[in-house]
GntR family transcriptional regulator (Raoultibacter timonensis), 852 residues
Amino acid sequence: MSSAHIIFDKTGDKVAHRVIKMRTSAVRDLFAAASRSDIISLSGGMPDVSLLPPSAIKKAMRAAAEDDRAVALQYGSTDGRVETKQVFCDLMRDIGVRCKPAEVMITSGAQEALDLIAKAFIDPGDIILAEGPTYLGALQAFSAYEPDVRCIPFDHEGMRMDLLEAELEKIGKGKAKFLYTIPNFQNPGGVTMSPARRKRLLELAEAYDFFVVEDDPYGRLRYDGGHVKPLRALNDQVVYLGTVSKVFAPGLRTGWVVAPKSFLAKLNLVKQGTDLCGSAFNQVVVQHYFTDTPWQKTLQKFVDTYKTRRDAMLAALEKYFPPEATWTHPEGGFFVWVTLPDYVDTGSMLSVALDKGVTYTPGDGFFPNASAGQNCMRLAFCFESPENLDEAIRRLAAVIEDQLELYRAFIEAGAIKATSPEAAQR
Amino acid sequence: MSSAHIIFDKTGDKVAHRVIKMRTSAVRDLFAAASRSDIISLSGGMPDVSLLPPSAIKKAMRAAAEDDRAVALQYGSTDGRVETKQVFCDLMRDIGVRCKPAEVMITSGAQEALDLIAKAFIDPGDIILAEGPTYLGALQAFSAYEPDVRCIPFDHEGMRMDLLEAELEKIGKGKAKFLYTIPNFQNPGGVTMSPARRKRLLELAEAYDFFVVEDDPYGRLRYDGGHVKPLRALNDQVVYLGTVSKVFAPGLRTGWVVAPKSFLAKLNLVKQGTDLCGSAFNQVVVQHYFTDTPWQKTLQKFVDTYKTRRDAMLAALEKYFPPEATWTHPEGGFFVWVTLPDYVDTGSMLSVALDKGVTYTPGDGFFPNASAGQNCMRLAFCFESPENLDEAIRRLAAVIEDQLELYRAFIEAGAIKATSPEAAQR
C-alpha cells in the first residue's frame, strides 16, 4: 500500500465491454509524428489559424475580460448562452435556415454533439447509416455505444441514393435509428451531395422512418460552384451540426446543434452528466468575434487561401501521380480522397512515406472496424503552402510508384490479378 | 416534407434505453428559479467569481491573445497541453502528491472526468460504491452507463468504514468496479474523511480489489483544522480528480485527472470520441493564471470570504432552526447537510420555500433513483453575503416550522410515529 513501491495500473481487467473494440485514431497518432520539422503533413484537418487577424482575437477576448467577465467566468446553463445561440441563428440564416435560439444547443465542438446524439439514441446493435468512408471522429463517437454502422458509398454527387435505398429495403422500415451525413465537401471524400439527392434522402427518411444528422463543418468554405441548400433548410426535422472550428478557431471548442426542441431536451439530459455545461468564457469570445469583428472579411481570406492550396494539390496530383490512381475534385473543404489499385496497402505504406518526409491518413480508419479503404488515403490541403503541397505530392508519388512497380512485375507475370480503382472504391 | 408545415419531433420512440431512467438535475432546474431577484439562493454551488481581481484575469488572457495565440486557437492533443499539466503537478505537490505530466490528463471540468471514467469502466449492472448522499453530477455521469450504485452512509468522520466493509462482505471480492468518494468537505454532506478512515479505505480497496476515485474540488478551501493528506498521496493507484472551478473559475471548464499512465490511456481512447480534445485556449489561460498572477493571495481571499459565510450560516441555523433538525459542521467547502424528521418531504416543501423567497436543494437528488434523503436538504453558503444567509435561514426556518407544527399535532394525537433525525439519516 505504500507509495514507496512502484505499482502498475491494475485496472486492465476492469475495462468496460464498449472499450474493447475501440481503436485509437491514426490521425491523432500521426499528429505526434508530424511535428518533425522535415515532414510535410497532409494528414491533419487543421485550419490555418495564422490567417486570423490578431486585432480581431483581442477584440473578441476583451468582452470576456471586461464587460461580460462575471458571466464568462461562471457556470453557464447546460444548453448554452442565449446571446451566443442568437449569433448561430444569424449564421444559419445566411445559409438558408431559419431557426430560433430555443432550437439551438451549444456543444464543445461538433464532436460533443456526435457523442450526445449517440449517447441519447444508440442502443447496442442499433443500425446507423453513414457515408462510407466517413469522418472517423463520428465513427469513434458512435462506437462507444456499440451500433451496427452500415456504410453507403458515394460518387461525385455524394451518397449513392440507389445503394441507400437497396440497403433500407434490406433493413426494413423503422429499423435504422438515424443517418449521419456530411453533405458538403465530405470528410474524407471531398464530394458534395447534389440537390436532387438531398431531396431524395429526405423522402427516404420519411418513408423508412429514420432521422437525419447533417454535419456541416466546411459548408462556408466553398471555392467553386454555387451554394447548395442544407438539408435542414428543406426539412425542420433534420438535426444540423455546426462548428466555429473551421471558420474561426478550433481552440475555442464551440459547436452547435439545430434540432426540434424535444430532441434538444434529450441531448440536454445526457449533457448534464457528460460535462454539466460548456465554457461560458469561450461562448462569450465566440459571440463577440461574430458581432464585433469583420469576420466575413477574414472568412474570405480563409476561402481564398484554401482555394489556392486545393488548386496546388490537384495540379500536383495531375503532375506526379501514376495513372493507376484516381481522386476526387472537391469544390470546397479540406480534403481529397485518393483511390489506388486494391493491392496497395496505404496503412503499411505510411512508414515508408514518413521516412520520405510526408504523411497522409490511411483510408481504412474511415470505415467501421477498418472494413474497407485499405487502398485509399485522405490528403489534407488546408494547412501547407502551395510549394509544400507540390513537394509533398512529389514525395508521395515516388513512394506509390515504388509500390506499384513491384506489383506491375507480379501482374505481368500473372501472379496477381489487376483491379480497376473504381471496383476497389466499393 | 415541406418546412412550411409545423412538424413535431418524431424521435421520441428512438431514445436509447440508458436515457429512460435519467432524471434532470433539480439543481439545474432551480438555477432558473433562482434568477428571481427577491429570492436568496442556497441551492447552487457557484463560487463567487466577483472575488477574482480583474487585473489577474486580463494578465492570464493576454498570453492567449498574444505569445501563445497560435497554440491557443488550434486543436490540441486529446490529453491536454504539457505546460498546463505541469501547473497541475505543481498544485498537487502543494497538497502532498508527487506526479509527472505523463500521469495527468486535462478534462473539461472534473465532470468530464467522471463521464470518461464511467464510459471506460462501467458495464450495465456493474457495482459502484459511493457515499450516500453523494454529488448528483457523479450519479448523472454514472447513470448513463447503467451501474448498480451502492451508497455507504457517512458521519462526521466521513464514509463509515464498518458499513463499507459489511457491504463488501455481501458483494464479494472483485465484484465492485470502483469506489467514488469526495473525502474533503463532501458534496452534499460537508464532512471530511479522517486520516484513519482513508487508510482503512485503501486497505479495503486492496483486499476487495476495486479502484478508488478521489474527487477533490474543495480541498484547498479549508476554514478550520489541519490539511488531511489526499488518498492519492497514500497510494499511487488512486485516481485523483482536480478542477480549477472552485479555486479559479468554472467558466474555463478545466479539470484534471491524476492516474497511472495505462489508466489514462483508456480515458484517452474514450475522450477521442467524446470531444476530440479540450480547449487549448482555456488551458493557456489557466496556465498563465497559475504562473503569472498572485493566485495564492486570491485563494486566501476566497477562503476568508467563504469562512465568514459558513460561520454566518451555522450561526443562523443555531439561531432559527427547530430542535428537530440536525446539520453537519463543515471545516471547508461550500455545503451544509440538514436532516429533518422523516415525515418532512423537502421536495414538496420547496415550492413553499420559493414562495417565501429562499431556495435549497432537496436531499433525494443526492441518492441514486431518489432512494433516500426525502427528509434532507443541502444548503450552499458559498454565494450569498452573511446578511443574506441570515435572512435566508430565517425564512427557511419559518417554512420548516409550519411543516413541523402540523406534524407535531398529529404526533401528539398518536396518528404518526416520531423518529429521531439520526435514524432518518440512514
User: Anything to note?
Assistant: The two ends of chain B are 56 Å apart (CA to CA).
